[in-house]
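Quick start: read one record
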Amino acid sequence: MINHARMYAQQEYDRIMELVAVLEKQAQQIKRRLEVTDAVHGAVYQFQVVMGNAYWLVWDRRKQHNLLTQHGPDDWSTGAPDDYEYITQVKYMGDHTWLELNEKGNLC
């Protein structure tokens, strides 16, 4: 009987640990979304953002700050500006947060 109780307890423990792993992954995703949102809110841009549209977060090496731009690294006819370091593509969501569409690099 002790073996059955032990087996049942182990199964329950394993099930709970699987749920913990899922919740931990979700928590990490939310944390990253908040980091991206903070980076975008600190970025410089001079256009009206539209919910649901995708933009690019860029580090401007010359000016030493983040920019939000509508142009991706491949959208320039003569190549992206030399001072631009593309960080990630982001999408403005309905809850006023920014979702990272790719994971190109670290946030500055």
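The radius of gyration is 21 Å.
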